[in-house]
């Protein structure tokens, strides 16, 4: 619930997370809150400051650019390995993950300006599955950590995606098509474009300073 409140914007970037308030908000003990915050620190959604406590991770132009640069360096390497190493089983998993994502509702009726949790979860699984063919677990782990760090930015970019009529489904389909064709250069190009578009929209909107 805490993660959902951060990603939905109910708890905003930079906001202090006081234990007493969180215990009341979620009707749980301090121990449960401490464990939840520790896990969210690992996902880079929460930051711990010595002598100050916990805060929702702040978003910034500089961090977004650094994060995007890192993703566009690491994920293509892992994807190339996946296309080289992956077998027919991996291909079928990519197809299945894409099918599940394509059939998930993008928004819910009660929050049409926010991504649905179902879509967000399937989107995460889809991107993870793209790299599962890579036989190097360290590359996959680094790529996964970077994607997790990008989740907060991804959620904040969604209103801009809508305003620009971005074809997110088409972007996903083009990546899958290139993978199935075993065209590593095209697949990498499409993936980098997909990642970079989110960053460009956020920067153009002025939502990240």
Radius of gyration: 18 Å
| CATH level 1 class label of the largest domain | Mainly Alpha
Summarize the main sheet.
Answer: 3 strands, antiparallel
Compressed to H and E, one letter per element, the order equals HEHHEEHHEEHHHH
Under the CATH scheme, which architecture of the largest domain would be assigned?
Up-down Bundle
Give the amount of beta strand, in percent. 5-15%
CATH superfamily of the largest domain: GntR ligand-binding domain-like
Task: Give the % helix.
Answer: 55-70%
Looking across the biggest beta sheet, what order are the strands in?
1-3-2
CATH topology of the largest domain: Four Helix Bundle (Hemerythrin (Met), subunit A)
- The gross shape turns out to be globular
Enumerate the spans where pLDDT stays under 50 for 5 or more consecutive residues.
none
SS summary, helix count: 9
Give structural notes:
The strands form two sheets. Strands 1-3-2 form a three-stranded antiparallel β-sheet. The protein has a two-stranded antiparallel ribbon with strand order 4-5. It contains nine helices and five strands; from the N terminus they run αβααββααββαααα. Helix 4 runs antiparallel to helix 9, helix 5 packs antiparallel against helix 8 and helix 7 crosses helix 9. Strand 2 and strand 3 form a beta hairpin. The model has no long low-confidence stretch (mean pLDDT 91). By secondary structure, it is mainly alpha-helical. The longest helix has 27 residues. The radius of gyration is 18 Å and the shape is globular. It folds into two domains: 55 residues, Arc Repressor Mutant, subunit A; 145 residues, Up-down Bundle (Four Helix Bundle (Hemerythrin (Met), subunit A)), CATH 1.20.120.530. Helix content is 69%, strand content 8%.
């Amino acid at each position: 619930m805490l993660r959902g409140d951060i990603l939905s914007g109910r708890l905003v970037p930079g906001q202090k997370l006081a234990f007493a308030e969180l215990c009341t908000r979620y009707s749980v003990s301090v121990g449960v809150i401490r464990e939840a915050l520790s896990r969210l620190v690992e996902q880079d959604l929460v930051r711990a400051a010595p002598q100050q406590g916990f805060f929702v991770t702040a978003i910034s132009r500089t961090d977004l650019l650094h994060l995007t640069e890192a993703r566009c360096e690491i994920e293509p390497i892992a994807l190339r390995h996946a296309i080289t190493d992956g077998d027919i089983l991996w291909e079928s998993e990519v197809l299945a993950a894409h099918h599940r994502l394509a059939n998930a509702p993008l928004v819910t009726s009660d929050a049409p300006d926010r991504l649905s949790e179902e879509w967000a979860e399937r989107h995460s699984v889809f991107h993870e599955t793209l790299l599962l063919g890579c036989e190097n677990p360290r590359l996959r782990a680094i790529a996964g950590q970077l994607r997790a760090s990008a989740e907060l930015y991804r959620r904040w970019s969604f209103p801009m995606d809508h305003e620009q009529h971005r074809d997110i489904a088409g972007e996903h389909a083009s990546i899958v098509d290139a993978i199935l064709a075993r065209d590593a250069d095209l697949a990498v190009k499409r993936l980098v474009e997909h990642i970079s578009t989110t960053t460009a929209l956020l920067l153009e909107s002025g939502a990240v300073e």
